[in-house]
Amino acid sequence: MTWNLADAKNRLSEVVNLALSEGPQTITRRKDAVVVISAETYAELTGRRQSFKAFLMGGPSLEGLGLERDKSPMRDVEL
To answer: Can you tell me the distance from the alpha carbon of 54 to that of 36, in angstroms, rounded to the nearest whole number?
Structure first.
């Protein structure tokens, strides 16, 4: 639901109750707008994500994978 600022001020308890029970509530002031959401929704949106390094380190193990360099001579190329 969308509220203008004056109504939201006068009925703040209702705005909060609706944000908790029905979902985000938008409050507008002229051309600006803000959204009131529950703490649970906020936590879902801003949840802590693992770092890129942790993501890579948590991948499959490379143990047993042959990563040795082939030391045979390169082929001859005429330039």
So the answer is: 33
Q: What is the DSSP letter of 26?
A: E
Q: pLDDT tens per residue, the chain (79 residues)?
A: 999 999 999 999 999 999 999 999 999 999 999 999 999 999 889 888 888 999 888 888 888 888 888 888 888 888 8
* Domains detected in the chain: 2-43 (3.40.1620.10)
pTM value?
0.60
- In eight-state DSSP terms, residue 52 is H
Sequence-distant (≥ 6) Cβ neighbours of residue 45 within 8 angstroms: 37
